[in-house]
Design goal:
The chain is mostly helical. The chain has one domain. It is 78% helix and 3% strand. It has a two-stranded antiparallel ribbon with strand order 1-2. The longest helix is centred in the C-terminal third of the chain and has 37 residues, at 115-151. It comes from Nocardioides baculatus. This is DUF2231 domain-containing protein. Keywords: Membrane, Transmembrane, Transmembrane helix.
Amino acid sequence: MFDLINGLPIHPLVVHAVVVLLPLATLGTIALVVRPSWRRPYGPLLVAIAAVATVLIPVSTSSGEALEKRVGNPGEHAELGDQLIWFALPMLVLLAALVWLDRRTPRSTDTGSRPSQAGSLKAVAVLALVAALATSVQVYRVGDSGARAAWGDQVSSG
């Protein structure tokens, strides 16, 4: 299904979308943790970006499997790519929870702020930060192994 478009493999096209959107989502998540004032204006857009990136990961892995049948086994790259969804999903869920909780928690200038909500918001922010950092590392690992699989024997360092 996810093999070719006009005789060209789909995998590089979809991978580039993931390579742009997922790091953007991780950087944005880190920014929302560090700058809480950005959560309300930018949070929903960032959740949408993270959702699109996460949805494209299975498309990328499926198209990679189709490409593998044509060019050979990429080794570690395929294994790391299959694991990426398990990093992106928790980050997406935690990012969505962070944005949702922020919208439900009154600002410090509001009266009647509930300490339990503020504590939950901080806990989710820390977890979202950890998930974003872990996702960033995994994106790097997948990309590095993919570049080595595609170009390792083509380009010399000398």
